[in-house]
Amino acid sequence: MISTASGQWQLGHSTNLVGVPTAVLAASEFNDDPRPLSIAGVRQMHHELFARLAEPEAKGHWSEIFEDHMAEWFDLPKAQGGNGAKPPKRYYASYLRLLRGWAFDNNAREGAVLKGWVESRFGLFPTFHREPITRVGSPAWAQYVEDKMACRFYSAAVLAQLDLLYEFAQWVLARAQPPRDRVTLYRGVNDFSEHQVIDRIDKRTVILRLNNLVSFTAHRDMASWFGDHILETAVPLAKILFFKELLPRHALKGEGEVLVIGGDYRVQASYF
Predict the structure, then answer these.
(1) CA quadruple 37, 39, 41, 46: dihedral positive or negative?
(2) What is the DSSP string of 97-140?
(3) What is the pLDDT of residues 93-116, one digit of tens each?
């Protein structure tokens, strides 16, 4: 479980929690003809949340309902400005703290926890954490494992929080108008050190193996803030963990980040 015969880093585990083989989920062909994904048992466990979201009078209040449910279920402080907010604890692990950590540095410990969540739920290995990961047991892999296992992040069932965040995002995206199953997103890079080039289709089109969690934006001009090369690709809604309109208060608003589950993607590469 180190690398393929060609020397490329393997996609990931043979099993996951979304009911689609990892090799199928990670293939670029999945992005051309995506199917809905769901983490086993999450919606059943939180059926009361999704029943409430579906009520006609809940429209326009989805984020508030979700945040209140998260605060109650996982014993989290309510979002600032909420009535009856709990006094903050000295430290509490939460999905919002992980998003904030990702916004500051996606190769810090919060980023490793998020990548570890993707690995455990979708079966995809990370390909980069502070440096390229080329094999199990490498210094880069060891650093990733050390960072993702930092004990302070595992209070309040933080991985279960991320499960529910993903399912809430999918519930909202399924109600987008007009209906669609993919969205065009952009990513700015200065080089391809973080992504493996799997195949070159033509001068501008390549198959890239993206990190198991990666940031995109819906705005091409914003992508240029992060690099001279602009990667454009069609991302299945089923692979979106988070987008800026999902919640009213979070750390990813500035660049309009969209957090995307990785794998192999067909991308158009161009200069800004």
Answers:
(1) negative
(2) HHHHHHHH-TTSHHHHHHHHHHHHHH-BPPSBSSSB--STTSHH
(3) 899 999 999 998 999 999 999 999
pLDDT tens-place string over residues 128-153: 999 999 888 889 999 999 999 987 77
pTM of the model: 0.90
Count CA atoms closer than 13 A to 61's CA, side-chain side: 11
Rounded-to-integer distance, Cα 113 and Cα 24, Å: 24
Which tokens in the block code for residue 256?
């309009």
Residue spans per domain, the chain: 22-173, 182-271
Asked if residues 218 and 266 have their Cβ atoms less than 8 Å apart, the reply is no
Q: CB 73: neighbour CB atoms within 10 A?
A: 17
Q: Which residue has the higher pLDDT, 8 or 88?
A: 88
